[in-house]
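Researcher: Next sequence.
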Amino acid sequence: MDLQAIIIAAPSANCGKTELACRLIRALPGAQALKITRFHRESHCPVHGIDEHGDDNCDGCAPVPAGFEIVDDDATLRTPGKDSDRMIKAGASPVLWLRAAPHVFEYALRAAMMRFDPSRPLVLEGNSAATIIGFKGRVVLLWPQKTRGVKTSVLPALRRVDHLVLVESMGRKVIPNTLKSALSRNEMKQNDLPELLWLPENWWRQEPSEPEKALIAGLVEVSGR
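Model: Next structure:
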């Protein structure tokens, strides 16, 4: 797994990972993309029933394949509303979707990585790659004010985060309580984190702010090395 990836992570679903990934893809000439879905370890779904969006489709609840599958079927990837479709429309090629059970995830990720060109940038959307010791990549952790709980898979990403992106609340820079709790669970303090980058509230509905432009420019520069 020598290919350097940019890993876009977040504490839960509906945090803006795919929007940020797509904005990065548009800025990266020759970008490739991998969407990751790791099936739930929990006996219950951590997505459904959390809030008013709890009836949303959850790919982690889909029937489990024989360990894992790498989805490359164009019709499936281009299903309207799917993250993979958004990545394709943003300009990534190829776009693959890795669906894997936890006990084979590391092997599955290695298999998926072999499908990409190591000379071109790769945007990887999902927390799970950051849980693999030795997996090379820059971790961008997007943490909004409101989350659907906090997935345990984000804790390793928090330990190795390179760019921590927070979202303002009513124009104020407020550290989310869920982030404070996650730091405590990780036995970390705020000064263990990189410099915080703040995006405006509802950033995904707006043109890129100056902090977002700076983040993307920095990631583009790193990917070009």
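Model: Helices lie at 17-27, 74-77, 83-90, 105-113, 154-159, 177-185, 210-223. Residues 45-56 have pLDDT under 50 and may be disordered.
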